[in-house]
Predict the 3D structure of the following.
Amino acid sequence: MSEEQIRSLERQFDERIARDEKIEPKDWMPEKYRKTHIRQMSQHAHSEIVGMLPEGNWISRAPSLRRKVALLAKVQDEAGHGLYLYSATETLGISREEMYEQLHTGKAKYSSIFNYPTISWADMGAVGWLVDGAAIINQVPLCNTSYGPYARAMIRVCKEESFHQRQGFEIMMKLANGSPEQKDMAQDALNRWWWPSLMMLGPTDAESIHTEQSMKWKLKRKSNDDLRQQFIDQTVPQAELIGLTIPDPDLKWNEERQSYDFGEINWDEFWQVVKGHGPMNKHRMKARVGAWEEGAWVRDAAMAHAEKKQERKQKEAV
Amino acid sequence: MKNWPLWEVFVRSKNGLEHRHCGSLHAADEDMALENARDVYTRRSEGVSIWVVKSSNITASNPDNNGELFEPAHDKVYRHPTFYELPDEVKHM
Ligand SMILES: [Fe+2]
Ligand SMILES: [Fe+2]
């Protein structure tokens, strides 16, 4: 194809998206669209999968059966989200094995928030309330994204997320209304998870690459800073409601903006964690790669069994 | 060792409705594909029946041929009831 032809195809492609038409797997698409989607969607899938680890840590120690079934169901949902997203990404021509390989070798990233440790039961509350809360804010606009399989996966994901956030908030609320020790535990969890949750919504607009192109392709509908402000404005009153304090001395209501002003985010910490130097990066990857490698014999055995069954069926048919 | 093949999953949400494609998954064989589909796509009673089909068994039309495939239907307005003129007196037709 000549460059002129490609430019014309690209123009038509952009116009289709501007008209709110969806792009489906076998449609022509610019190489950059394919690559950008593979990157964003696979990283999203990886985040769901790695995101099971910090919460999986507490399933066996949940304080009651009610909490245990809820946490178990939530973690299972996250596995489901990862699987919806991996299969949606495969429609762009990358294999599941390639994606795993990228995750396991550190070539692909996942959300930096999962590189923080979950050291008390209250962290299950903070993660559900704040981390899933921030994830919802990120994900809802993606239900309208231009790539059909991604948009459909996100609709499913978003339907399932709201219970995640509610069960987290309920844990926090119970602890905040409990004994002084329990309240301290809840406050401590909020102190540790607040700033990483703000960072989770991505670098500040001035430093964010890809934004303009992503807006055009509806991979992004609002800027990181707008999403962050939305998250803060919705979360602060929830903290007040249960008597917890947001760990930011500069946080205050701005009457003029009808929004909260907030303190400086430690972006150094964010980039350190992204680059692999967070408290749990190595631990998470070790757990993930270990699960994959230790499961190899099970995958092989299942395949061998399936082939044997198939052969038997064919013999019977003769 | 060989990788698990890809399967397409179709779910009937309730009797009276058709099976609808809802996504795909990897499984060693059709039995495992059904079991995995149950866990991945119907955790909240989204279905009463599941079909799984090996993705490699699906033949799909190519969007590049959409013109020759689908355009011939565009100018056949006589296939629609609004093409026919009836006197106002005729009701319910
Ligand atoms: Fe999720
Ligand atoms: Fe979630």
Summary: The beta strands of chain B are 6-12, 19-26, 49-54. Chain B has two helices and three strands. The longest strand of chain B covers residues 19-26. Chain B has a mean pLDDT of 94.
